[in-house]
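Class prep. Protein, please:
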Amino acid sequence: MKRIFRFITTVLTLIVLAFVGGTFFYGTKSVHDLLASNEKLKKAITTLTHEDQIGFAKVVKQEERDGQLFTTVKFVETARGDILTTVLEKEYEIEGDVVHFDTLIVTFSDQAVMDGKAHSLYLWRRVYGENMNPSEGYDIETPGTHPERYAGLLRDLKLPEQQMFWEAIWDLANDPEALRDHGIKAIYGNAVYKRLRPGLIYVFKIGADGQVYPEIVLDM
């Protein structure tokens, strides 16, 4: 019994050490090692391209219940370079008709990409209504998972290294100084909101300044 207890204690200690200081370790390698020395990751980042559209939303249903308006919204995330391909699709019911869409944006420096212009990763975080706290919002991409729109970006990395990269992007978002040393220009949130109406599609696009905005088109 004592031997089993010592084994469990040792395993728990190793798990704690793996996450100490907010840095994820794989073996003896940290995310800083991965960003600094992995040539495949550097190559993937240099080939980032500009994106114009990263998803869209539409009202599936809007109805009043007990004097309160509710909106069911479908959110669709599209593939990189192919706006006709869906990589994620979810529906959310929101109280009211004003809906917020929240993204985490990771912008790489001009020197980090091949054409000398800054490019970014756009990670959808959550959807929430005007009467909700943002922390109570519904997840779009779950923190620590692999965003499908970037599935091909890190395909040459080993699976544990891919996991480390995405977990680091989420977990180290509040440590921009450290990430800037690895060619990351800025990490910040961008929440846009609209009063949604049936019959319209809200297409999320990227401005030249890296900000997300919704463009409205008729739902034909």
